[in-house]
Amino acid sequence: MARPYGLLRAGFPYLKSLGMRRLTNYPVDLTLGAEGRIYILNRQQDLAQIRKYSFDDEDLGNFGTVGDGEDELQWPVSIIADSEENLFISDESHHRISSFDKEGEFLGTFGEYGSGEGQLNRPAGIVFDADENIYVVDSKNHRVQKFTKDGKFLLEWGSHGDGDGEFDLPWGITVDELGDVYVADWRNDRVQKFTTDGEFVMKFGKSGSANGEFNRPTDVAVDLDGDIYVCDRGNNRVQLFNAEARYVDKFIGDATLSKIGREYMMTNASPNRIRDMAVLEPQKRLRQPRSIAVDSDMRLYITDTGSYRIQVYQKEAIHLNSQQFAPPMRSVTLHQE
Amino acid sequence: MSTKAVEAKTDPALLAHLYRRAGFGINRDEIDQLATEDYSDTVEFLLNPTAETGIPEDELKRYLGGEAPHAYLAIWLYRMLNSRNQLQEKMALFWHGLFATGLVKNEHILSSSNQIEMFRENGMGEMREILMDLAKDPAMIFWLDNNENHLGEPNENWGRELLELFSLGVGNYSEIDIKHASRAFTGWTFAQSPPLYPHGYYPADFLFREDDHDNGDKEFLGHTGNLDGGDIIDIIVKQPSCAAFISRHLYNFFVADEPQVPTWNDLPPLDPELIDAMCKAFMDSDGEIKSVLRVMFNSDSFKNARFKKVKSPIEMVAGILKLAGEHTDFRHDLAKYPQSSTFTMGQILLDPPTVEGWHTGREWIDGGNLTERINFAVDQVGDGLSPGIKRIIDRLVESGSLSTPESFVDTTLDAMGPISVEDSTREALVDYARKTEVDDDRSRAVRMIRLMVSTPDFQYA
Q: What percent of chain A has pLDDT above 90?
């Protein structure tokens, strides 16, 4: 589907929250399956768990154990699903990518510690391209590597630095519908865009907290309109940019109680009283968000890691054609039409 | 004890002693670098933490953390092992022991960890600020029930412990002082933070409730008027008894094991002369802890007090990890040490046994936890492949000192600290070295190091 000629950005309201403490403990990433299934990756000290969840805020079970066994996880970072809904998870402690089917059956791993071709040192973000090859952010090697789904090395790019195409402990990664690759270049406080083969295309962002600036961005996502979302973790927000990387908007958190959270509170008197005594405003805000995802329905999912939940926003944008959207203007104007 | 050289500008043994006490240890190569500087300059370096901690703070938050207490403790342990500001971390531990606050009661890890961060930030500052921050600290307020200290319904728990355990000591105040101090702290509470469920811990912030504060006249240590909590602390820190109490605690923590605190009213300090000098520094500097520490660390009494303190479990664990050179990078298993290792040795950080903190000295050791301590140390030495142990072995092999049993033992003791052992221990080590002369150098060295960390001498700092 071609990108729209223009967009009427009608709004981007908060839609709902999913999860709560105990169910979605320190969610660090999620991936979307069919029929509204959501696979939420939870990571804490002594916890490495995939929570199967529904968009209706229902717990569908969990799997994953913490440990050093071949089928265990230690420090999982990112989770992605292939077309069969097999799940691939990066593990920055074991320096490998592990895979499970959607019922949690262990399928295998690839990757080993090292800095050579195909080796990994703290793998972080992972993403499939349209052919289901997998890009891996090889964070401590400051590079991106591309593998086949079964772990055969295809290519790599990047080295340590802050120049174009260089990285400093990169984290999240995404591929847009055109095949271009975006990397959250964590310690350089920027996002870089590459072609499918790793040729540098553009970069945006710098250190800071103003609009368009980042404090250790952890993830990046692109929707079907080409809009770019950046998880600006250190600033406790997600920023929205258009396809040309012009800042558009930000999300700081608007959470209401999730359905499961309401059910919990309805049967617990003491938390209700304590909540009533506390200031509500901070409870809405994002706390150390870690990752973002967008679906084909233009919903934005933010793993609100510090608050044990997912905040979901709904994009409302109308596609405009050339009759509805004037040509680009060279200069700003005060002329009101 | 057969200590080696006493005071010398570049005496490695003295520097090792300083870093065992004012920090959590130091490796031999770093000592060689520091030995080119004057001892007092090294003390000043420790007394003046800089922003150049050597800790990548962003990575620390990236890889470590979480709501579990041992997840936070892993962060603290990482700082103990890797921060250049070693004394800053040690002072946080000192205040944690003195202002003992238990997570077991508040069940709010964010407040407990924030308290440790507070100790790190201001632990060498003025006593007035330290006590003011403590009085406003939600973890302490809740621990000693000052949130229950209301106008007309005073709760004296905080007021009592402030005087008895935190600043003056028994015998230096009256029951009247406790009652009036408690009234002065009415209304010192914290704003309600949201509940743990459904969305986790939120920070608690200090709140002064004017409507819950007793504005009546009070009498405290000879002062009268509408005293509030700040006035009470102002009066406390000007008391010579406060200077003496804090100085003796510092001496007990850093220099040598004093008798347990409840006996202090009856038993004089082990070193009255040094305590007097520390008290003078306290009074002359308006209670600046750094000034007191400077006098203490530069004293002959401190310099000569080697291997006179039983290592606390966390000192034991951090010290041996540092010796092994492990955990300079971020690893998931760092949390196991505060979760299980120090626990089995009798110390649960963030959860001191009572408001009195941990009893120190020989009370750290009984038959059970001595075995734990030795096993832990031997395990960390392992097969000699850890970076720190490899450095020691390289040093031994390269020095050619394995040629005689005596030089083998002495060089190993030097490379591991330098540390000193009793003459009888040294003789046993030499005897062992003699029996292993047929083995290859590296395996001999590993076994010797394992044996050394198993000695009673190694239990002392």
A: 98
Q: What is the reported pLDDT for B6?
A: 40
Chain A with chain B: Cβ pairs closer than 8 A: 81
Whole-number pLDDT of residue B403: 86
Q: Flag whether pLDDT at B129 surpasses 60.
A: yes
Q: What is the DSSP-derived secondary structure letter of residue B263? A: G
Q: Is A92's CB within 8 Å of B68's CB?
A: no
Contacts of B276 (CB under 8 A, 6+ apart): none
Unique residue bearing structure tokens 């409840």: B262
Cβ within 8 Å of residue A194, ≥6 positions away: A144, A157, A165, A180, A181, A182, A183, A200, A201
- Per-residue tokens: B128: 């007035």
Complex prediction ipTM: 0.94
Closest C-alpha among B41, B21, B444 to residue B13: B21
Q: Rounded CA gap, A66 and A87, in Å?
A: 17
Cα(A15)–Cα(A10) distance, rounded to whole angstroms? 15
Tokens of A310: 């997912």
Q: Mutation target for A interface from B78, B107, B193, B197: give the one with most A CBs within 10 A.
A: B197
- The phi, psi pair for A5, rounded to 5°, reads -65, -40
Task: Decide if pLDDT at A132 tops 50.
Answer: yes
Q: Which two tokens stand for residue B359?
A: 């009893």
**3-state SS, residue B435:** helix
Q: What is the predicted pLDDT for the residue at B9?
A: 67
User: What does the pLDDT look like over B364-422, one tens digit per residue?
Assistant: 998 889 999 999 999 999 989 999 999 999 999 888 888 899 999 999 999 999 999 99
Residues A268, B197: C-beta atoms closer than 8 Å = yes
Query: pLDDT per residue over B291-313, tens digit each?
Result: 999 999 999 999 999 998 999 99
pLDDT at B3 over 50: no
Q: Report the gap between the CA of A278 and the closest CA in chain B (Å).
A: 5
Helix axis angle, B272-284 to B289-297, nearest 10° = 150
Residue type, A294: V
Q: How far is CA B452 from CA B360, B448, B458, in A?
A: 23, 6, 7
Picking from A221, A223, A218, A256, the residue whose alpha carbon sits closest to that of residue A236 is A218
Exposure string for A4-42, b = 16+ CB within 10 A, e = fewer: bebbebeebebbbbbbbbebbbbbbbbbbeeeebbbbbb
First to last CA, chain A: 32
Question: Is the preceding peptide bond at B418 cis, omega within 30 degrees of 0?
Answer: yes
Give the pLDDT band of residue B265 (cuts 50, 70, 90): confident
- What is the sign, positive or negative, of the torsion defined by CA atoms of B161, B166, B168, B169? positive
- Cβ–Cβ < 8 Å for A302, A292: yes
The answer to whether the beta carbons of residues B26 and B42 sit under 8 Å apart is no
Given a cut of 60, whether residue A48 has pLDDT beyond it is yes
In degrees, rounded to 5, the angle at the alpha carbon of residue B358 between the alpha carbons of residues B356 and B359 is 95
**Each residue's pLDDT tens digit, A144-179:** 999 999 999 999 999 999 999 999 999 999 999 999
User: Mutation test of the interface with chain B: which of A17, A42, A45, A92, choosing the one with the most B Cβ atoms within 10 A?
Assistant: A45
Q: With beta carbons less than 8 A apart as the criterion, state whether A225 and A4 touch.
A: yes
Cα–Cα distance list, A217 to A115, A208, B426 (Å): 24, 11, 56
Q: Which two tokens stand for residue B80?
A: 């103990």
Distance, in Å, from the CA atom of B238 to the CA atom of B236, rounded to the nearest integer, reads 5
Say if residue A209's pLDDT is above 70. Answer: yes
The SS3 assignment for A166 reads: coil
**Euclidean distance between CA atoms A320 and A133, whole angstroms:** 33
Model confidence at B8: pLDDT above 90: no
pLDDT at B4: 46
Which chain B residues touch A44 with a CB distance below 8 Å? Answer: 66-68, 71
